[in-house]
Amino acid sequence: MEEVVPCPSLAVTSALRIGTVGAIWGLGESSVIAHKKGLNGITKASLLATSAAKCSFQCGVVAGVFQMTYCWIERHLGQKDWKNSVIAGAGGAAAAGASAAIVARKRKLDGMIMMACLLSGINAEFS
Question: How many CB atoms lie within 10 A of CB 26?
Answer without folding.
Answer: 24
